[in-house]
Amino acid sequence: MENYCIVEPRYERMGYRRAGRSGILLSEVSLGFWHNFGADAEYDVCKAIVHTAFDNGVTYMDLANNYGPPAGSGEETFGRIYYESFRSHRDEMIIATKAGHDMWPGPYGEWSSRKNLIASLDQSLHRMRLDYVDIFYSHRPDPNTPLEETLQTLVDIVRQGKALYVGISKYPPSMAAAAYDYLEREHVHCLLYQGRYNMFTREHETEILPQAGDRGVGYVAFSPLAQGLLTNRYLHGIPEGSRMTKSKFLRPDSLTPDLLDKIDRLDRMASRRGQSLAQMALAWDLRLPEVTSVIIGASSVAQLEDNLKAREHLDFTSDELYEIDQILGNNPLAEKCCSH
Ligand SMILES: NC(=O)c1ccc[n+]([C@@H]2O[C@H](COP(=O)([O-])OP(=O)(O)OC[C@H]3O[C@@H](n4cnc5c(N)ncnc54)[C@H](OP(=O)(O)O)[C@@H]3O)[C@@H](O)[C@H]2O)c1
Q: Are 185 and 42 in contact (CB under 8 A)?
């Protein structure tokens, strides 16, 4: 007996964008399981977050083998929630996982050999209590494994029916181009490129995003809130329990006076737009047609609800975009943006 009660009309609450040249529409806002869903997280909060996401039309759930801590526990938490609440809604969800980062001891527990990818996906399916995933990603480029070995494994995983689509993450442009070509030749179109894209990290604007657009590959933006920096979370100090207090991926020394000044100015600008900074940061990512979805993280239902409201004001005037470029500074695209 499942314990999820359908909330209608959930699909009217969300916008959906096509992932490149494909049949797949993704929710503009997606839910990521990197942090906040490990064995250390409160299960009831995790469950409430996933329920709220689904209630609001979020269809895309982004996981990876190593999400936790400990590695694997993010998928286990999702698997339990899925089993308890969403088994009869499997066909309404796009569930993704990835392999490539450090996962188990020994020479086969990371990177992207055939051995690693196939074993890892089998483990992920077991943890998530699924027969197949919708998307399987190569999580990072592997400098030592021949690219053909990794890509052919992705093709074989699709042929085996263990994944419906494949994607790549963090590949540099030349490797991404080679991957798109290889997969195309094998008639397994690359559905998605997953990369870090937010106001503070704009490198992908120059090559990766236009390339994905040209190649008919969707782009999903991870850490669109710069792990919480692009919210009001750190405006008045470092709160107890925040990511900065417990994750090696977000260090207190990143919070320089210059960065805080930018966050403060962006926050004031967001208020003028009638939005929270988090909402403005997500809307800003979604201003690009190449961006299919923003994958957010949330440690509470309140954060998720705040983020979902980004969709209420997605438009920017050219003056607003110019102002954002000015606040961010040192941006090679600022001149280009303000000229039209
Ligand atoms: N492919 C890859 O290599 C890769 C890498 C990184 C991430 N990802 C994917 O992208 C997902 C999202 O990454 P992320 O967690 O870094 O995303 P993010 O949305 O940039 O940051 C999420 C964090 O920001 C804070 N936050 C979120 N909404 C907030 C709000 N409205 N107000 C105040 N604070 C708020 C929370 O921090 P607190 O915890 O402090 O409350 C939350 O944990 C991951 O879960 C994963 O699925 C993929």
A: no
Ligand 1 nearest-atom number relative to CA 98: 1
331, 59 contact by CB (below 8 A): no
pTM, rounded to two decimals: 0.96
Find out whether the beta carbon of 36 lies less than 6 Å from any atom of ligand 1. yes
Could you tell me if the CB of 223 is within 6 A of ligand 1?
yes
Tell me the per-residue pLDDT of 13-60, one tens digit each, with 9 for 90 and over.
Answer: 999 999 999 999 999 999 999 999 999 999 999 999 999 999 999 999
Ligand 1 near 222 CB (within 6 A): yes
Ligand 1: atom nearest CA of 229 is: 24
Is a pLDDT exceeding 90 seen at residue 114? yes
The CATH number of the domain holding residue 160 is 3.20.20.100
Q: Phi-psi category of 104—alpha, beta or left, where left has phi over 0 and alpha has psi -120 to 50?
A: beta
Q: Is residue 263 part of a domain?
A: no
**Residue 165: which domain range?**
11-234+277-314
* Number of independent structural domains in the chain: 1
179 located within any domain: yes
